[in-house]
Amino acid sequence: ALFYVHTCKDKDCKLLPDNTEHIFKNISTHYFDKSFETFPAPPKDNSTSKTTPFTPDYIIFKPNQQYIATFNKTIPLYTLNELAIKADQKFDEINNSETNSKQTAFYFYSYLKVYLNTTTKNDSISDLELNKALEKIITSTINPHILAHIILYFHIQS
């Protein structure tokens, strides 16, 4: 059909109605319209699945909580991973779905982000620039791991 559209020069062609000009645009429109008659779109499915979001309880990183967020005592990555797995399981329970590694990774990085942001608030350096934050923390410790965590936090934020 496409070959015909490009090569047909027959003035007596009955493909189009008599009152329609026999040009490429009209012929291609004819075939386009016919394609919808031959291959109609499937009926729209109105039963779209909806998921119920699950927001973990990040209060666990506040002072006097189970996992207080501070640069003086870092949280092990496996703890964040365990929290992420539990959050994913809760999401799956709410939505009657299966565990998904991408969803678990999403919760892991959500916990990590909130942990780092809460850490700067708990250590009162959230409004400081890197140099001022380091000066403030250095007065209480010279632990290179703590300083590295602070530098990493500011690097991630920029």
UniProtKB/TrEMBL annotation:
Protein name stated in the entry: 24795_t:CDS:1
Organism: Cetraspora pellucida
